[in-house]
Amino acid sequence: MLLYPFVSVVIPRIFTYVFAWRIVDIVQAWFNVTIRPPSNISSSRRLFILVLLNYVEIAMIFAVMIFSFQTNFMPHPYYMFDAFFSSLTILLPVISPVVTPISLVGLAMYYGEIFISLIFFIVIIQRTLALFTIKD
After folding, report:
1. Which residues contact 12 (CB under 8 A, 6 or more apart)?
2. What whole-number percentage of the chain has pLDDT above 70?
3. How far apart (Å, rounded) are the C-alpha atoms in residues 114 and 108?
4. Would you say 77 and 88 are in contact if contact means Cβ atoms under 8 Å apart?
5. What confidence score (pLDDT) does residue 1 get?
6. How far apart are the two ends of the chain, measured CA to CA in Å?
7. CA distance 75 to 97
8. How far is CA 98 from its chain centroid?
């Protein structure tokens, strides 16, 4: 009973800070690759694998955040898989999201995930076009 306030408040905040730092790190790496051309040769297979890994990582980060702050969303994701599925539906532009934010924190996380996914798709399109352009 003594650890309940620590577990219910501090641990989700720690995970949120760590995951927010990781998202900033991923976005910084995307912009560094965009600004500075890489020294090695890119391949389409390498691009696909890295995009898939970054996409799953971002989905997991936001799934943990949604699960940690589940009272800010309706319906509440009771299981981690529900939070992961909700995060995937927010990231995919074709599917309508499963959860709806009901507070300011929920709105910030919801629109933050949409903003990061837009940056993600812009960088993917730019990298794909740069990979398949013909140099004269």
Report:
1. 68, 69
2. 74
3. 10
4. no
5. 46
6. 70
7. 11
8. 16
Domain boundaries defined on the chain: 43-136
Residue type, 92: L
Q: Taking a C-beta distance cutoff of 8 angstroms, is the pair 86, 112 a contact?
A: no
Round to whole Å and give the CA distance between 96 and 90.
Answer: 7
Burial of 91 (0-12, 13-18, 19+ CB in 10 A): buried
pTM, two decimals, is 0.64
The single-letter DSSP state of residue 74 is E
Residue whose pair of structure tokens reads 């971002």 in the numeric block: 58
CATH code for the domain defined by 43-136: 1.10.287
> Do you know the residue count of the chain?
136
> For residue range 5-35, what is the model confidence (pLDDT) as tens digits?
545 566 666 777 777 777 777 777 776 666 6
Check if the beta carbon of residue 61 is closer than 8 Å to that of residue 26. no
- Rounded Cα–Cα distance for residues 76 and 82 (Å): 9
Q: Residues 26, 50: contact at Cβ < 8 Å?
A: no
Instruction: Give the separation between CA 85 and CA 75, rounded to whole angstroms.
Output: 13
